[in-house]
């Protein structure tokens, strides 16, 4: 087996997902320090729930993650934790987020497996987001 595979007690897996979500009303609020703090929070949450963040970029109006998730934990549960906890922490630390938005994140998100494209292509795409 290659090092691309992970395992837990029951399974060996390689489940990588490209996840995108936006602030409510697609407001451009993920800037001026909010973006930096959001990265720290997401890395902390990932460590707690044993999800590996392979690549991450925070745009002013959306978040890109490339993650490796245990299929028994599930991508929906991971996104729910990322969005729920980050909303709570960011709204506590940046009060202006409370006044502009009823909730920080939309209820929806995009997720796609990355089996169809080489990982380096997906990583490059995420890294180049700020340049476009």
From TrEMBL:
Gene3D superfamilies in the record: Transposase IS200-like (3.30.70.1290)
GO biological process: DNA transposition
Molecular-function annotations in GO: DNA binding; transposase activity
Pfam families associated with the record: Y1_Tnp
Protein origin, superkingdom: Bacteria
InterPro entries, per the entry: Transposase_17, Transposase_17_sf
UniProt domain Transposase IS200-like: residue ranges: 12-129
Protein name, per record: Transposase IS200-family protein
Species the sequence originates in: Chroococcidiopsis thermalis (strain PCC 7203)
Organismal lineage: Bacteria, Bacillati, Cyanobacteriota, Cyanophyceae, Chroococcidiopsidales
């Amino acid at each position: 087996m290659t090092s691309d595979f992970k395992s837990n007690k029951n399974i060996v897996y390689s489940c990588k997902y490209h996840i995108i979500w936006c602030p409510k009303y697609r407001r451009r609020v993920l800037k001026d320090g909010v973006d930096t703090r959001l990265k720290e929070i997401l890395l902390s949450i990932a460590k707690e729930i044993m999800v590996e963040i392979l690549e991450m970029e925070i745009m002013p109006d959306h978040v890109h993650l490339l993650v490796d998730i245990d299929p028994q934990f599930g991508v929906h549960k991971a996104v729910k934790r990322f969005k729920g906890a980050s909303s709570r922490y960011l709204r506590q630390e940046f009060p202006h987020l409370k006044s502009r938005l009823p909730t920080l994140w939309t209820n929806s998100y995009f997720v796609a497996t990355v089996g169809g494209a080489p990982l380096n292509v997906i990583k490059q795409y995420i890294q180049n987001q700020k340049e476009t």
